[in-house]
TrEMBL record, chains A, B:
InterPro entries: P-loop_NTPase, Polyphosphate_phosphotransfera, PPK2-rel_1, PPK2-related. Keywords: Kinase, Transferase. The keyword Cell inner membrane does not apply. It comes from Agromyces salentinus. Residues 48-265 form the Polyphosphate kinase-2-related domain. This is Polyphosphate kinase-2-related domain-containing protein.
Length: 285, 285
């Protein structure tokens, strides 16, 4: 693949969470499988953008004619500043907006809290032909909920199973699930938060609560480790992407999506009408 | 404005539907106010893209900090092939997907038909800081509904008033409404439909029903004329954009959005926390 020219190994395998995975083993500044620098990475991203746009259009087309029910759900999880927004803007931004279904899950509202935690999630699952993107997700309910004890331990335990059930049902409904955790170091996070405090055009991205969360980093790392152990399934794998280099994280997520789309063996759907007949009708119209 | 260098007159005024407006007076192949060619138009679009992205980010930022409630709703209406999808892809595609709320209104479902026609519309109005885009809209309920007599004449009449009431309420909730009709000629439409029939990668975009609709073109033109007469209001103006040249239509819609955003006199919101205090906290964290 042209967009993969600097890949020295398949990043899919390198980034996928396996049996003995330990989050603490991962270097957030590494660039697994890619031997190029930032410039090479940005070039590769630009090359991949066209391919991603083409494949997305085929996915979408198949849902509009021919009844292909397949869809993709990209779940993005990370500590603050790790670059979820950048993924949406720079990876998904290259795709026709009509084919992307984006859902950002904030602090739950009163109404949302009065239902099961998956209530608001179900409403946002992507339709056929779509690439759904969850900016935060149902995993918040076992991450911040665990760290800040927003629910009793038994309820948190129940949720891991509920999440696996939920995801299994989505996969059964022709959804390919890709779960990504963007992994940044504490030092890189400090620098990014500093930048937000230094620049007047970035102030709006900062919230004093970000520092409170930052102080809980060790607990979050534990909670993520637990998530990987409880919710890594063959059908809904986790990928941990080192994210100290924004360019690498973006390229890696793009690569995951390209991989999923290429495995789908997409093609333009065949006309479900008689092309010649319609040509004649049109000429007369 | 740099992006407006080929504009010989403000297209806003030229494209806005006024008192004596007649759709039949508009030449779909014209490029009002722009004296450049396709290449110049595409350059101007690329230049405007950065400006649009910047202003959109300020609009969004203001809603996240400082409580700015303003938002934009772009309504797109047109006959098939006129280029609504291209507007979404090439104009809105340059904006961060997180700031765009896109809603495509198809043939209503049974559930939607069992409610008032505005029921499904209300659910899709943009939130604060967002640019909402309606790909087709509540106007279908006085366009196809009128042409194909899907509702009695008295109900159609009632709907014009209901639409004006609805839009007035949106404007009162800090929404700037921009209503666009993309206007293509019958000949250009035939050519575009032909292309969809010729190319295997475009077959999915064609539907035999498109020709049925095409045959009703005169009735649609009448129905649009009636829409302009009944629902052109100072707060929710209509713009008719000649769309035989795709590049012109895209540039014109971008210009309308830039104009709206520039009038908002946006700026980065001021920090609602003590920046110095947070710097110190961060350094210690």
């Amino acid at each position: 693949m042209k967009h993969a020219s600097h890949w020295t190994a398949d990043p899919i395998e390198l980034l996928r969470v396996g049996e003995q995975f330990r989050l603490s083993d991962i270097d957030p500044a590494s660039t697994p499988g890619f031997d190029g620098d930032k410039k090479a990475g940005e070039l590769a991203l630009a090359e991949g953008a066209d391919r991603l746009a083409d494949l997305q259009e085929q996915l979408f087309a198949g849902s509009r004619m021919g009844g292909d029910q397949r869809r993709i759900l990209l779940v993005l999880q990370a500590m603050d500043t790790a670059g979820k927004g950048g993924i949406v803007k720079h990876v998904m931004g290259s795709v026709d907006p009509q084919g992307v279904q984006l859902a950002a899950f904030k602090k739950p509202t009163e109404a949302e809290l009065s239902h099961d935690f998956l209530w608001r999630i179900h409403k946002e699952v992507p339709g056929p032909g779509m690439i759904g993107v969850f900016d935060r997700s149902h995993y918040e309910d076992v991450l911040i909920a665990r760290v800040r004890e927003l629910a009793p331990p038994a309820e948190i335990e129940r949720r891991y199973d509920a999440i696996n059930d939920f995801e299994r049902a989505q996969v059964a409904s022709n959804t390919t699930i890709v779960k990504v955790m963007l992994h940044i170091s504490g030092e890189e996070q400090r620098e990014r938060l500093q930048k937000r405090l230094e620049r007047a055009d970035k102030h709006w991205k900062f919230n004093p609560g970000d520092i409170d969360e930052r102080l809980l980093r060790p607990k979050y790392q534990e909670a993520y480790q637990r998530v990987f152990e409880r919710t890594t399934t063959p059908d809904a794998p986790w990928f941990v992407i080192p994210a100290d280099h924004k360019w690498y994280a973006r390229l890696a997520v793009q690569h995951l999506l390209l991989d999923v789309l290429e495995r789908m063996e997409l093609d333009w759907p065949k006309a479900d009408y008689d092309v010649e007949e319609q040509r004649k009708r049109l000429a007369k119209s």
